[in-house]
Specification:
There is one protein chain. This protein has 665 residues and is of the alpha/beta class. Helix 11 crosses helix 15 and helix 15 (592-602) crosses helix 16 (604-616).
Length: 665
């Protein structure tokens, strides 16, 4: 406590003070906010209602929250990703810069997500993947009830009257109702002269024997429709299917980037952000807000109201499910790496703010462990891996790199943290797969000159994940880099040079780009990509070794996930991301997570099969498995230390002048 006679230093007074920040936004608006001494610029911007991209979760690793300190007193705790010239020009990382006085901050243009994701306008029609009889397979039913109006001779209460009609009409007995439904019962019964439609949930996965529940009561005959949602909460993107539960058809689809991206591009960054004051609540609001916008979109296009949707099935990795439900996820990243829950009980939409019917059941599919979640259990079932009988490798390529190996009778799984490099993060000129991203590269072996394809056409602004894989493979095959990822300065080309971040190869000169700056891949970028691909390769190599399976024994490779469908098999093998197997053994399955959620939404027996698959999976914790580190070290080369594991790549190198030594070494 400070009191009379106790002097206080100027430093202490400063730390107790409040300072005014002026933010100049992208559209030249002036926004003022008062914040305490020591507040980060990112937190101050958030308080001012200004959104900054913070894809690393505020760890100062990505450099995308850079702002310009035009004037005022701030302190940079870190300038990682900023050059000396950037700092001299006033740039600062908002998440790593604290307020120490009044200041004026300019917000430069933020990266925009412009690529149109798969929506109902662009997606292929989804066919019901199996026989579907709603009377047999569906837990949500609509029952049309003509109810006898009460009289003085029969003054039975409304709920008992509805129960009696349900037994007489459909044989459904002992139905229960919560207070929110009872509050609308009286008016619904009388709105259309005692003709109503009762929405009944006969069972849920965690209460397979009921009792049946009255989810909603609607005036009139509404039995010709019944709506449900399948949801995939991806780290990068969220997908929603609106499903007609009467015939099983997907009638509308919509997708968008997960709003949490601005607070962390990978799960670890988001877990860290969730531990900040108010961070968990904010992340939950961001993902639910994204989903609610998608729900509004599909409902509007179908001509219905969101409250007419009475069931939702959700898949996602363990961290995404935790954040969706506002469950603290910190234990996921801390040894011994455990979740709060893998089998989430059924919840009501109103409990989590999902804008469908408040009484609708939201069923989150089961996960297996901290980094193998419901997206993988859904994928294993929807891919048919659970039934194939042949040894199959299932890979979901992404920041988390989940892998499953087995023949259906046995399954072993792991997750290897590949990091966000394949999403373009952690790379100087990396970006998401949006308009302006270079998505494929070819290099002339004689001149080492590149050509490239840009998403949306026009001039490039950066390189996305698929472009980085393609570029690295081309650089290796043409000798621009050696197997260690070192650039070859003996080549007679100005594209190989030393820049601010060390050695680099220029993909596009400044006059070719949208922003007027060179686009290059640096040696640290190459290291990040090699580490990412090595982690994934080491993951399935460790799984195979743990059960005594050789890569040659694998009959087929299923590649799931939204990013997986953009992989070039040849280029992925050339850098050692995928095993060197015949190309006809690889199958791109797209988003197996949403497909699994859709299948579980329709049929209770498929929902039970996903439970069974989750219980059948043996989880291998790679951090406790010494063989993983051995495999990882061996895979830290292009394509691998043991070139004999990549015979097709060796053949390409053998046909390339001067590369024989790399085959033998």
């Amino acid at each position: 406590m400070f009191g009379p006679g106790r002097p206080v230093s100027l430093g202490v007074w400063a730390k107790m003070s409040t300072h005014t920040l002026q933010f100049i936004t992208e559209d030249d608006q002036l926004v003022e906010v008062a914040v305490p001494f020591g507040t980060t610029l990112s937190d101050a911007a958030l308080k001012a209602g200004i959104e900054l991209n913070i894809p690393c979760g505020g760890q100062g690793r990505c450099g995308r929250c850079a702002v310009i300190v035009e004037q005022g007193a701030v302190r940079r705790r870190s300038a990682l990703r900023l050059s000396a010239a950037d700092v001299d020009a006033g740039y600062a990382l908002a998440c790593q810069t604290v307020v120490e006085g009044d200041a004026r901050i300019v917000i430069p243009p933020q990266e925009k997500i412009e690529r149109v994701l798969e929506t109902d306008k662009t997606a292929a029609k989804i066919s019901v993947p199996f026989a579907y009889d709603p009377a047999l397979h569906q837990s949500i039913r609509r029952v049309c009830l003509p109810i006898d109006a009460p009289t003085l001779a029969d003054n039975t209460d409304d709920m008992s009257r509805l129960r009696r009609a349900l037994v007489q009409t459909s044989g459904i007995a002992d139905v229960r109702a919560r207070l929110s439904v009872l509050r609308k019962l009286s008016s619904a019964l009388r709105a259309d002269h005692w003709n109503v439609t009762a929405v009944i949930e006969t069972d849920t996965w965690d209460m397979p024997d009921g009792p049946p529940r009255l989810v909603d009561v609607l005036p009139g005959d509404r039995c010709d429709e019944n709506w449900g949602l399948a949801i995939d909460i991806g780290t990068t993107s969220n997908v929603v299917y609106l499903v007609n539960l009467i015939n099983g058809d997907v009638v509308q689809q919509a997708a968008d980037y997960n709003g949490q991206i601005r607070r962390g591009e990978d799960v670890i960054s988001r877990i860290i952000y969730s531990g900040k004051d108010g961070g968990l609540h904010e992340l939950q609001e961001l993902v639910v807000g994204t989903l609610n916008r998608l729900i509004q979109r599909v409902a509007r296009r179908q001509g219905i109201e969101p409250h007419e949707i009475h069931k939702a099935t959700v898949a996602g990795n363990s961290t995404m499910i935790h954040l969706f439900l506002a469950l603290p996820p910190q234990s996921i990243r801390l040894e011994p790496y455990v979740t709060t829950v893998n089998q989430v009980p059924s919840v009501r939409a109103s409990e989590i703010g999902l804008s469908i019917n408040p009484e609708a059941t939201v069923d989150c599919l089961p996960g297996v462990a901290s980094y193998v979640g419901a997206d993988i259990t859904a994928g294993v079932v929807s891919s048919g891996m659970i039934d194939v009988g042949d040894i199959t490798l299932f890979i979901d390529v992404g920041t988390n790199g989940e892998i499953v190996l087995g023949d259906g009778s046995w399954l072993i799984t792991c997750a290897c943290s590949a990091g966000p490099a394949f999403e373009g993060a952690g790379v100087v000129d990396g970006m998401r797969a949006t308009r302006g991203a270079i998505e494929e590269v070819w290099i002339n072996g004689a001149t080492v000159e590149p050509t490239y394809r840009v998403i949306g056409g026009g001039k490039p602004t950066g390189i996305c994940g698929s472009g980085l894989i393609s570029l690295l493979a081309e650089m290796f095959i043409t000798g621009v880099v050696d197997k260690s990822g070192n650039l070859n300065h003996s080549l007679d080309t100005p594209r190989i040079r030393t820049g601010e971040h060390g050695d680099e190869y220029v993909v596009a000169w400044a006059n070719e780009t949208e922003h007027g700056r060179d686009i290059a891949i640096t040696h640290p970028d190459i290291d990040n990509l090699v580490r990412a691909k090595a982690a994934i390769y080491a993951g399935f190599a460790a799984l195979a070794q743990s059960v005594g399976v050789e890569m040659a024994d694998v009959n087929q490779v299923f590649i799931g996930g939204a990013f997986g469908q953009y992989l070039n098999i040849e280029k992925s093998i050339q850098i050692g991301l995928l095993p060197d197997l015949p190309w006809n053994k690889f199958y791109f399955l797209g988003n197996t997570s949403i497909k699994g959620a859709y299948m579980a939404l329709l049929r209770r027996d498929v929902r039970a099969q996903i439970d069974k698959a989750a219980s059948k999976m043996t989880y291998l914790e790679l951090s406790a498995d010494n063989t993983f580190y051995d495999h990882f070290t061996s895979a830290m080369f292009l394509p691998h230390t043991d070139i004999e594991q990549f015979a097709s790549v060796a053949a390409v190198l053998a046909a390339t002048t001067g590369r024989e030594s790399e085959i033998k070494s």
